[in-house]
Amino acid sequence: MSESDTPTLAQAALASVRGASAEARLIAAEEVLEQLLARGFGECLGTGTETDPGQRVTAVLSGLPEIASLASLSGRTMYHDPALLSRTYARILDRKDVPAMLMAEVIRSNSRDYPRPVLVELFEAPPFDLAPAVIEAALKTMAAGEEYRDISFTTTSLGTVYLFSSLHLERSYAAFLAEQDEAFAMNP
Amino acid sequence: MRMICNIASEWIERAAKASGLEAELTRRGFLKLSVCALSGLAFLDLGDAFGEQAPLVILDNAKGIILADPTRCVGCQRCELACTEFNDGRAQPSLARIKISRVLHFGPSGPTGGDGMHGDWGDGLVLQGVCRQCPHPVPCATACPQNAITVEPETGARVVDPAVCVGCRLCQGACPWGMLSFDEQAGVATKCFLCHGHPKCVEACPAGALHYVPWRDLTRDGGAQRSGLSVISPESAKACVDCHVPAGKTSVK
Amino acid sequence: MVATRGGFAGKVLRVDLSTGKIGVQDMVERYEAVLGGAGLGYRVLWDEVPAGTGPFDPANKLVFATGALVGTSVPCNGRATVTTIFPTCWPRPLVGSGHMGGHFAAKLKYAGYDALIVEGKADKPVWIMIRDARVEIRDAGHLWGSGIRRTTLELSQEMGPDCVVAAIGQAGESQAPMGMVINSVSHSAGGVGGVMGAKNLKAVAVQGSGAVRIAGDKAEWEKLIKFHLSILGGNNQHVVPSFPTPQAEYYNPASRWVGQPGRRWGAAKPPVELAGDIYDLNRIAYRTNSAAFFLGEEAWKYTVRGNGCTACPIRCHTMLRVPSVAVKYGIPDMAQNTCIALQFGRMFFKQLIGRKGGEAAIEACMVGMHLADDMGVWSNYGQLQRDLRKLYEGGYLKTKLGSKEYASIPWDKYDNGDPAFLLDLIPRIANRQGELGDVLSRGTGAIFDTWSIPEDEWANDHTTTYWKMGHPKHHANEDDGQCGVIINTQYNRDAQCHSHTNFVRNGLPLAVQKKLATEIWGSPDALDAPGDYTPANIYKAKRARWSLVRKELHDALGVCNWMGPWVASPRWERGYAGDDSLESKFLSLATGRPIDREELDRAGERIFTLHRALTIRDMGQVDMRTKHDLVPPWVFEDSKGAAPFTKGTIRMDQADVARAMDLFYEVMGWDRATGAPGRARYAALGLADVGERLAAMGFTPEDGK
């Protein structure tokens, strides 16, 4: 391969990750490898030699400063460009198929980072798009599961339910923040 | 732009091509035209037409045009302001070459009241005034007695040359859509010149209501808002007759 | 001919309705030090309107003032301030301003004027015609009795479709203190309509063909404009969207940036889909939908588009089409507004407040906007609505109103949350009919006076959100602890300051906000987590000063304090920082005269201090601390008994608030005991004449009575 006009392996790997991120998709090393092979990088990756192409790809990806990685629920490492697909959104995507984990992730990060409790109806809206029955089932799962012990709820004086993580928010403070959030809609 | 220097058949062919009328010219029609034109010339004594006073006739179409979507316009006037601030160094909607202020409150029909009114006080639609970069015949250019309206090569936009314009305002009267502005400070007319291919108004619109697209003919939609005061100088009229005298008809006196 | 600066038009128009005299004076020479807007208004009042002048006296003046940046493409400009002796200020009317957006301010600049000062009183109804240099007082007899809508239509027929009309309706005509003036459909200045009515001034209509000159290099100007656009967020400069998106790390469900791709302006024909890059500068207008924010999801299908002030890309007014209201209530099916004015109708009904008001709330809003924005009835930042609810639910009306009048009011509709109730109530207020109509038309103070209800009954009840002097809180301790409290003590009407709340509600995580706070105000302790307040400190006082100074600056330059300052931004690559010097950069380029942030802030402080001086003079009192800078008792209570400085309460501590005021007076350079500036302070701010005058009257701390 000539140096001048063909992209390097690193550039091509970056392009693969960016392509997926632009479509709001996480990408695993295997898929990056597939794309690189399809683009003719087989030789560079040491296909047919002792070098494991998969490990080579992983090494290249780890070396890219523009790329973030995520320890996926699936056990694999997933990659994305945070400039196109934020870390926050990547975590949401990764947990999309397990509503309880998805909700717990959102509740915990909100309780820790802002900090604030989360209106339960948030999960009905995009990008979560969970049906009320699904949310209800997830809430039941979380009530029962040891790993969700920190997930709690508080109800405002108008009857609105907010969820929070007791790891990051005390109950009384979460209750206050929930009331305040509700009141702020009437505090322009 | 083509100046009438001779009436060679080659020239008429090029002229037809430039105005998209190539297909309409049969070989017979083409010859007929040129024969009549020749005889017409003899009668008209157009010797003067080939001197400095020879009229400018714009035949080439523009390359780009600004398209406006009234359903997206949010009535902010940022397009008008970008036009004059970034081009003229002053904020002056009355000078703007895209026209919002005059239709913003009540729409093009003005404060009629009743149903059917547009603008902020009506149904909300803002019918933006945008220069159509007219194909031949270009009303503003044709009306100009000074040949001050020419074509800018990069975009094909019809532009007023302020060094030539004497401020007679005949172009303003000629435009069927009232798109010519008059710069009181400089004493010259001005119009949309497509900002060298990067229209400032398009860039400024916060609602995606304006787009810069390849030129298409928007003059035949019957949407002319006012009858133009179309004044054509005798020299220009004679030049029109060169191309527009049908084969076999009476010669022009 | 005096060379004008860029930015400024250079002229102030004076119209004396008593004599019919119309004159023009130089703006720059006389008023440049106070910039324009409220600054110019305060200066005129100081120089020309004596203490003790009543709001409806012919001697009162109305100063419609724009700013140097108005009429340009600086994002979020287009504002006019209307300064006068403010009628709802209780018990004694003092200086105050209404703030009006729309297209009036820009048009006045294009006509060639930085401000219009209206003096005296016409002997019969008139309107003022302004067309560039041509200004006339014309007969408005045929318009008197008409609403704002018809007035605008008829004056536009007379002047031309591009004119902008600022008009009063029946409320202003009947000299209701709660009357307002409106231009461009939905843009109101509260509290000043009655003053216009008292002058027999029905409307001001403006056409302008001129220019606002940019003195600086136009390429530099373009670059700065584009930079400003690139750091804009959604409404109120909320810098994160309300929804999770791949494009952002942070989101906040309470953010006013609600334009999620996939939403649509459902009542546009055909509907407009919001799609694509949320940071695209050609899509800024899609970020905000005030109707959806305040009224819920249902509002999207009624949204035609956004609307707003000249040159602002935010479009915080939402244009709604709700077909059902035409048949149900006999009103137009279209209305538009933002914020409280959008919610004017539903706020009367306890069943319709809160997020889940649904379709009924939307209908009530349509009825409210139709009536209030045509008859010109102000809400006093929702105090009108809260007052009615308390008066009714508290049983006051049953005892205070005569039984005949009480019976004539359709309370059954009110009890049922039926918006048709407003078809009776609002005209009552506008026309000052009966005792209820009259009392409500005069502001909260009239409730105390007319019915001998002690002010304490409001001041002790947090549900009224009453603050002082006849007006409610406006982003006080519930938003921003001591900083909010300080700000709310400073004015003679509700504070109308958003500098502080725009920042604390911008949606960024607290840690990021604190990092930005360190850069801007010197310490992360300049703000607290909501409801997790810490004691007063100098940084909070500095932030309060900054908030007030910038609000006055915005009101003087004609930019929107509901958006600015722009110290935070959506840009992660900037660490979410905006630019604290944006105002001074724009003014420098516009005028051609470089001015840095500190010098411009000093002008803002000069303006704010002039407001202080006017208040002192007209109260006849130097002790602002105990007589003016008041905090209502409910601020120091908590319904659950939680103590101040515990997590989960907005309850303040009296000693701590006193300390906060100490610190505030210290950063302002004012006397600690009285909260009043001394002669030296006035002089340092270029107000030596003001200081001397007050000193002579014994109203400076060192010469105090």
Based on the model shown, name its key terms.
heterotrimer; A: 188 residues; alpha+beta; Arc Repressor Mutant, subunit A; 2 domains; three-stranded antiparallel sheet; 7 helices; B: 253 residues; Alpha-Beta Plaits; two-stranded antiparallel sheet; 9 strands; globular
The strand count of chain B comes to: 9
Low-confidence runs of chain C: none
Strand tally of chain C is 20
Q: According to CATH, what is the topology of the largest domain in chain C?
A: Aldehyde Ferredoxin Oxidoreductase Protein, subunit A, domain 2
How is the biggest beta sheet of chain B arranged?
2 strands, antiparallel
Strand content of chain C: 5-15%
Strand content of chain B: 5-15%
The count of helical stretches of chain C stands at 29
CATH architecture of the largest domain in chain C: Orthogonal Bundle
What is the average of the pLDDT values of chain C? Answer: 97
| SS-derived structural category of chain B | alpha+beta
Strand order of the largest sheet of chain B: 1-2
How many domains of chain B? The number is: 2
Q: Mind describing the biggest β-sheet of chain C?
A: 6 strands, mixed
Count of individual domains of chain C: 3
